Amino acid sequence: MSLVLDPTAQDLLFREARTANTFTDEPVTDEQVQAIYDLVKYGPTAFNQSPLRITLVRSPEARERLVQLMAEGNQPKTAAAPLVAILSADNEFHEELPQLFPHFPQAKDAFFSERPAREGAALLNASLQAAYFIVGVRAAGLAAGPMTGLDFEGVRKEFLDDDHTPLMVVNIGRPGPDAWFPRSPRLAYDQVVTTV
User: Fold this and answer.
1) Distance between alpha carbon 94 and the CA centroid of its chain, in Å?
2) What is the pTM of this model?
């Protein structure tokens, strides 16, 4: 069985998608980021939760503060990327549920009145939204360099607050010279899928 999605789009979004390690100096505009968000906001989540928060790092001062919080091998990439986004989970996402899940507005209190329940749901659903965001960056014709080699607590203190949990930093832009490492292997279908 073939996929409905055009093979060129399949390649763009998945087969040719890789973590970019170098970028050109072509800027990434606010309009591009808005277009990415306007696409990926429709990706499904549990209870239509939308806990993902995106902090765009644009100023040189903020960039330098972030670079210092990255693992050593990630610092040059984050310093040189045209745009850097900090993706985080908003642990108070439930406040938006009456608007986002109007056919059951009681979900806010019925399922998410306790902070531990919110933190677990926020982490899961914001991570799902982060994956959509990375695919959206690809759909915009840009490359993404998602990274988790960073001082998470430092990023939270420097850029966020106690209600937000950092998930990753994503470098965004047009791929530069030698942007890609060789393609790494993937698991085969029968290594992943079991029928019971």
Assistant:
1) 20
2) 0.95
